[in-house]
Amino acid sequence: MTRSLNPLLEGKPAAPLLVVISGPSGVGKDSVLMRMRELGFPFHFVVTANSRPRRPGEIDGFDYHFVSTERFEAMIRDDELLEWADVYGQYKGIPKFEVRQAIASGRDVILRINVDGAATVKRIAPEAVFIFLAPASLDELRLRLTMRRTESPDEIESRLAVAAHELEQARHFDYVVINEESRLDEAAGQIRAIITAEKLRVFPRQVQL
User: Fold this and answer.
1) How far is CA 184 from the centre of its chain?
2) pTM more than 0.70
3) pLDDT tens for residues 67-125?
4) I need a surface site. Which of 11, 104, 190, 201 has the fewest CB within 10 A?
5) Which domains does the chain have, with CATH numbers?
């Protein structure tokens, strides 16, 4: 691939980025993204495809792209998904067209996915920016999971064991951001700083899907 100079040098807007934010369950990925939205960060958050039935109040194309199981399996066969998983017999995945359309319009795209999903995206789109969101410590993560009150003590310990393994995968990411309890704005600001710096690269990343 021929490397092009940053379009900023010609007085044009910086090239849009594909940003992947990942990390252990319970680290606060959704909270950070929500805060970024509240702070007015200009990015496109991808709407995923889902094969489960639409629930009351959910809007097709906003909450999810609701498709039949047959249509989802056709999307898998036709390589229309950036990443997908079978979760308890129901499919969830990221349509490539969502990413292509946003990037073509000049918008940065942010994906919030698990660590395994991030590895899949890296194989398909290695020029994406990969940010690992980490807890200050496993003890803090244990406290977060406990405060959620959605898992039993055994389930929490199981999640922590998985989290310890996922933390080892940080070596495959470009950046690490520590999301400390009660310091959400700091984590959001660091992600903004990463995106700003990436847009100033002399030879910017060129994502092709």
Assistant:
1) 17
2) yes
3) 999 999 999 999 999 999 887 788 999 999 989 999 999 999 999 888 988 999 999 99
4) 11
5) 1-42+107-209 (3.40.50.300), 47-106 (3.30.63.10)
